[in-house]
Write a structure and sequence with these properties.
Length: 114
């Protein structure tokens, strides 16, 4: 048996999506019921898991994976924010509080629970 956290405590909701939102993007609220890609240093509300017909399904909590830029996050409690290019980056303050579970430095992905 392999370890898997996929689906653990996952909760999603559907919002209107800005034109640039894609699956896997960290997103933030840009106006009422609307999400856009989290800008550089901007806290994110969740990660987009699907986009269709101008709407984004956003995972708001649970375990998920995202691409990161900059220094690799460290396993444990961390603050992450958007990097402005549809990835997340480690912050020293003003980020989204997450528990980093795994980091893949080859693929530049981070698995976290929020």
């Amino acid at each position: 048996m392999n370890v898997s956290l996929e689906g653990f405590n996952s909760k999603t909701a559907t919002f209107a999506a800005a034109a640039d939102v894609k699956k896997g993007d960290p997103v933030t609220f840009t106006s009422n019921y609307t999400v856009g890609v989290a800008g550089s240093g901007v806290s994110f509300c969740g990660v987009c898991v699907d986009v269709r017909d101008g709407y984004a399904t956003v995972q708001l909590c649970g375990y998920c994976r995202a691409k990161y830029s900059g220094s690799a996050p460290v396993v444990g409690y961390s603050l992450l924010a958007g990097d402005g290019s549809a990835n997340v980056k480690t912050m020293s303050s003003n980020g989204t509080a997450v528990s980093v579970i795994d980091v893949d430095t080859t693929e530049k992905t981070v698995g976290f629970y929020f």
